[in-house]
Amino acid sequence: MHGEYVVADHSLPLQEVATVVNGRFDEWGVLDDGSSIIVIREDLWKETMLPISPAHAMRMEGADTSKSVTLGSVQDLRITVGEITVLVQAQVVKNAPFRLLLGRPFFSVTQATRKDTSSGDYLLTI
Prior knowledge:
This is Peptidase A2 domain-containing protein. It comes from Sistotremastrum niveocremeum HHB9708. The strands form 3 sheets. A 6-stranded mixed beta barrel has the order 1-2-8-3-7-6. Strands 4-5 form a two-stranded antiparallel sheet. The chain has helices at residues 42-48, 104-110, and strands at 16-21, 25-31, 38-41, 59-61, 67-69, 72-81, 84-93, 100-102, 113-116, 122-125. It has a single domain (16-110), classed as Beta Barrel (Cathepsin D, subunit A, domain 1), CATH 2.40.70. It has 126 residues and is mainly beta. A hairpin with a 5-residue loop joins strand 9 and strand 10 (122-125).
């Protein structure tokens, strides 16, 4: 608290959830309800041995207006969180600081809600 104002931190760590990818791979998924897509990094995609659809590649724009093109899309990638399993469409990228990013399509299909706390923690309800 700063006088009568509540002061935000300069930054907080990314929020992640434990997932199982394609029924075989334990992976932390970064929760990002500001992203319009689900992203899987190329190395994790290769481990799944699932086909990729280059025809569904898309142009991405970063927060700094940088642009890149994905390698394509993995159709119906199985993601399990707790007792919930969903099929998602995931864009494959060559490099990223994460192996799995769960964007708005994940929140939509699971009807998940996230409640942030002032300590930087969160509660994810699916």
